[in-house]
Amino acid sequence: MKFGKVDHPELVDFTIPDDHPDTEVVLSNTTNNDAPKIYVGCAKWNRQDLKNFYPRGTKDELVYYASQFNSIELNATFYRIFPEEQYQKWYDKTPEGFKFFPKMTNEVSHLRRLNDKVYEIADRYLAVTSQLKEKLGTIFLQMHNNFGPKNWDRVQQFVEYWPKEFPLAMEFRHTDWFTDEKVAQELYHLLKENNIANVLVDTAGRRDMMHMRLSNNEAFIRYVGANHESDYQRLEDWVQRLGQWKNKDLTNIHFFVHQNLERESPLLSAHFIEKLNAHLNSNLTIPQTLINRDKSLFG
Question: At the top level of its lineage, which domain of life is listed (predicted)?
């Protein structure tokens, strides 16, 4: 994931901004007496990307990955609509309680940019994706960097068309969605009214996407490490913020770890899970092959 990469991450202020005032409002409208549902994972399970994660002799990467993590941010579905049989295989290879958070095909977001031709494509995508059944988590739709507020009508029509039985999160990258107050208010009202999560992206070169504004009771966070020693502290800062949101009755935490060089994503995820378990009193599995590994990645 090259988005937001910078040459000198040591010069970036990675401080998590204060919450947007509307986040407090959103969380205050939900009463949750149960522990939040927490899913943490990587973006992919490919052995080449996650070098040194898999034990020697691993025969099926997804089977092993799903024994270590409870979720995956499924980026492969961005590039093609897989046949129904493939989703059934993924379902069968993963244990009870595992969830997939698939990315909407780029035919919808990038090639056709939510025009009036995308609805048939979205329907085909959902028909096969639904084969994941109860293992289907939130689908997320990532818009192109240059998809700005001039396309408001397309966003509104798509959101209103989207079948509500499928949880959806949306990631907007054009800066005007956040910096233009009138646009931001209209966008977040639309997301909130349709129970769609607003994706938060923590990456070095686009700190404007850390708008800290939840639109429903789901924190969908895409964290991009910089392959720098600061990655650990950044994750620990997120643990503290998620603890604050938990105390305000946050229901769903969906946190996915990327890096510009993905090979260390499992190790960072394990560090995050360890700290999260301690702070939130959760009991997520810490990837076993990583527990005793030297955590000095950057020396």
Answer: Bacteria
Q: Could you give the number of structural domains in the chain?
A: 1
Low-confidence ranges of the chain (pLDDT < 70): 1, 289-299
Structural domain that includes position 30:
9-290
Of 137, 60, 69, 53, nearest to 92 (Cα)? Answer: 60
For the chain, percent of residues with pLDDT exceeding 70: 96
- Smallest CA-to-CA distance from 225 within 190, 260, 196, 186 is with 260
- CA 40, 46, 48, 54 dihedral sign is positive
5-57: per-residue pLDDT in tens?
A: 899 999 999 999 999 999 999 999 877 778 899 999 999 998 888 878 899 88
CA-closest candidate to residue 171, choices 139, 193, 142: 142
> Which CATH number belongs to the domain containing residue 151 in this structure?
3.20.20.410
pLDDT of residue 120: 97
Residue keyed to tokens 């129970």:
195
Distance of alpha carbon 283 from alpha carbon 58, whole angstroms: 26
pLDDT of residue 291: 45
- Please report, for residues 56, 174, 222, 269, the alpha-carbon distance to residue 6 in angstroms, rounded to integers and kept in the order given: 34, 18, 17, 21
Sign of CA pseudo-dihedral 169, 200, 39, 298: positive
- Cβ neighbours around 54 below 10 Å, total: 18
Q: Has residue 85 been placed in a domain? A: yes
Enter the pTM of the model.
Answer: 0.95
Per the CB < 8 A criterion, the answer to whether 5 and 205 are in contact is yes
Cα 1 off chain centre by: 13
